[in-house]
Specification:
Layout: H1 11-22, H2 26-38, H3 42-66, H4 72-80, H5 82-114, H6 121-136, H7 140-165, H8 182-193, H9 201-205, H10 215-241, H11 243-246, H12 252-258, H13 270-301, H14 307-321, H15 327-370
Helix pairs in contact: 1-7, 1-10, 1-13, 2-3, 2-8, 2-10, 3-8, 3-10, 3-15, 4-5, 5-6, 5-13, 5-14, 5-15, 6-13, 6-14, 7-10, 7-13, 10-12, 12-13
């Protein structure tokens, strides 16, 4: 895989891509999901969920560095066998494209229930799908720069909002410290790991980094940053409302912002500003997933350009997104897609890494025998 200008990114751009792909719908629903399991210790469970994602990302970065000049579409079949490897790659691609539809639908539901109350859901979802399609038609450098530009805006705004809302946190609502107990924290960490999906961009984009030795560092910076933001967000939501109340809200993080009043600010409606910035975060998430999905599919099918696949897939993505009948069905679909993503991207890399080590050990033994060694 030759690295020309269109297919070469910096380590910082990899950090931006991981951050952009991860910070989306999960930030609004995560407090509800982890508090349901871990209670007042939801923020601790979230932190450990980030560590799960970080561990998987380290394995992915090791795999990418062990197979230079190759993408996962190329080295997975080499390691797992042509047919099994291509099947696994195809499942990954299907996952990426399918979550685009779910995220677009979740985006539509949030916007329709918060700011555009009279706008048809279909119009909101279709608008985001078309925007994602536009971004997906660009080359990798453009996608990386978009994530790079929006990273600082989203990062500093969300961090600023979290710090502003800390003043409303009651430490009593964060007790007992271990919530429902260590076992519940462990189960909550597994649930929280789904909100960190986007860390798999290490596998998809890492092959294009112009400084391979920095892949692990770049992914670590991104995931640790997200872990801090997510843990802080859950802590604030739990500390403001309490775990029992958090479970009752559709979008707990949005409710925290909506109930926050900061005297002296020019903008009194922080919730409107928050949703505006959140829209940018969701756009980068959906657009990045769609780009790497169609790019992987194009490589798997042997196409020279991924652009030819973008438009034909848009109607399918829109139809899949409008498939769930109500908001409850959307939540269930998101939860199951999160579980599937964790299984696929947190466990599979360890299997592939094991195969890589076995093959390299076998190759080393054969080379030693050819040299006449014992």
């Amino acid at each position: 895989m030759a690295k020309n200008d269109r297919w070469s990114i910096t380590p910082w751009q990899l950090t931006s891509i991981i951050f952009g792909a991860t910070m989306g719908v999960g930030i609004l629903t995560l407090p509800k999901e982890v508090d349901r399991i871990a209670g007042s210790a939801g923020w601790i469970a979230t932190f450990f969920g980030g560590l799960i994602a970080l561990t998987a990302a380290w394995v992915m970065s090791w795999l990418v560095r062990k197979h230079p000049q190759k993408t996962y579409v190329e080295f997975f079949p080499e390691l797992l066998g042509q047919l099994p490897g291509k099947v696994v790659v195809f499942i990954m691609i299907v996952y990426q494209i399918s979550v685009v539809s779910l995220f677009a639908r979740a985006f539509g539901e949030v916007v329709m229930t918060t700011i555009l109350l009279n706008t048809p859901l279909e119009v909101i979802v279709l608008s985001m799908v078309l925007l994602a399609g536009y971004l997906a038609r660009q080359n990798l450098r453009v996608v990386a720069r978009i994530n790079e530009i929006f990273l600082l805006v989203v990062l500093f705004f969300i961090l600023g909002i979290s710090l502003l809302t800390l003043q409303f946190v009651s430490t009593l609502r964060l007790l007992p410290l271990l919530g429902q107990g260590p076992l519940a924290i462990a189960r909550g960490a597994l649930e929280a790991a789904a909100a960190f999906l986007g860390f798999e961009m290490v596998l998809f984009a890492g092959s294009f980094v112009n400084q391979p030795d920095w892949i692990g560092k770049a992914s670590t910076i991104a995931i640790l940053g997200i872990t801090i933001l997510y843990s802080l967000g859950v802590l604030v939501a739990t500390g403001v409302f309490g775990p029992q109340e958090v479970e009752k809200f559709l979008w707990p993080t949005f409710e925290v912002v909506r109930n926050t009043e900061v005297p002296g600010l020019v903008l009194e409606r922080l919730d409107v500003l928050f949703v505006s910035v959140w829209l940018v975060a969701v756009f980068t998430t959906i657009g990045t997933y769609y780009y790497f999905g169609v790019q992987g599919l194009a490589r798997l099918l042997g196409f020279k350009e991924h652009k030819v696949l973008v438009l034909p897939l848009l109607p399918l993505i829109y139809r899949l997104g409008m498939g769930p009948g109500d908001l409850g069905a959307v939540f269930r679909a998101l939860r199951w897609s999160g579980i599937g993503g964790v299984v696929l991207f947190a466990l599979l890399p360890f299997l592939v890494a094991g195969v890589t080590l076995i093959k390299k050990t076998g190759d080393g033994s054969q080379a030693q025998k050819r040299r006449g060694g014992p």
